[in-house]
């Protein structure tokens, strides 16, 4: 199985390389580990990368390490997010490569990125680690840790009112996408209410696929478009 996956991955990279007019031998890769700055232990995080300045090449990973090619020797923006940690943002520059690799471990510092003191009324947070079953509104258990950060934020700020905003990709039937995005934010609201958050403090709004972050027709871009965002209405 491992051999099959490795063969498939190599084939994909070769195909993408040819599509961008670049041979696999000339590719530079960005690689590194995601670790706790204090304990040095691995941290599983959502890793988003995109080429600069236009972001026409992008991808997302959920892992404690990353590896991706820097096509056309372009610089890339790297954003690393994990529940309970401060978001880390880096610039990956192929000019810093040693051989064909830019090696950069990312150290995350503990913090409360959802802290009310850092988010004023109108601020929007992307709940990147809220995961649903494909085509359904059932929340994965892997999402609970991030949702518990939201619960903690709201319990520490008793007057806070939020709005959960659901987005799908723009593929498929628009009405079904709208229906799915509504069901998903309602599922998130239900989880918060189950943790003793008053339902009157959690509003919901569905957008379907009407507000994509990217129009690129790639699996990575479609994953990026499928998201739940939290907007602070009162604080």
Automatic annotation (TrEMBL):
Its annotated compartments are: Cell outer membrane
What does UniProt give as the signal peptide span?
A: 1-24
Q: Source organism's superkingdom?
A: Bacteria
User: Which residues does UniProt call coiled coil?
Assistant: none
OmpA-like domain mapped to chain residues: 119-235
Question: Mind listing the UniProt keywords for this protein, alphabetically?
Answer: Cell outer membrane, Membrane, Signal
Concerning InterPro entries, the annotation shows: Bact_OuterMem_StrucFunc (IPR050330), OMP_bac (IPR006664), OmpA-like (IPR006665), OmpA-like_sf (IPR036737)
The name of this protein is OmpA family protein
Query: What is the protein's species of origin?
Result: Ohtaekwangia kribbensis
């Amino acid at each position: 199985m491992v051999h099959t996956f490795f063969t498939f991955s190599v084939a994909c990279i070769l195909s993408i390389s040819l599509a961008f007019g670049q041979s696999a031998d000339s590719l530079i890769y960005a690689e590194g580990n995601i670790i706790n700055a204090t304990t040095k232990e691995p941290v599983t995080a959502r890793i988003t990368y995109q080429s600069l300045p236009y972001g026409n090449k992008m991808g997302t990973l959920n892992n404690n390490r990353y590896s991706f090619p820097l096509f056309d020797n372009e610089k890339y923006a790297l954003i690393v997010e994990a529940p309970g940690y401060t978001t880390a943002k880096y610039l990956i520059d192929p000019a810093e490569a040693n051989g064909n690799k830019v090696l950069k471990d990312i150290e995350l510092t503990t913090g409360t990125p959802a802290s009310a003191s850092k988010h004023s009324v109108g601020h929007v947070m992307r709940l990147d680690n809220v995961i649903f079953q494909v085509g359904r509104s059932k929340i994965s258990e892997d999402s609970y840790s991030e949702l518990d950060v939201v619960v903690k934020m709201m319990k520490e700020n008793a007057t806070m009112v939020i709005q959960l905003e659901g987005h799908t990709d723009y593929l498929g039937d628009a009405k079904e996408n709208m229906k799915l995005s509504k069901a998903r934010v309602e599922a998130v609201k239900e989880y918060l209410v189950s943790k003793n958050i008053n339902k009157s403090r959690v509003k919901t709004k569905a957008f379907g696929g009407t507000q994509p972050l990217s129009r690129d027709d790639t699996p990575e871009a479609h994953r990026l478009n499928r998201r739940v965002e939290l907007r602070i209405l009162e604080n």
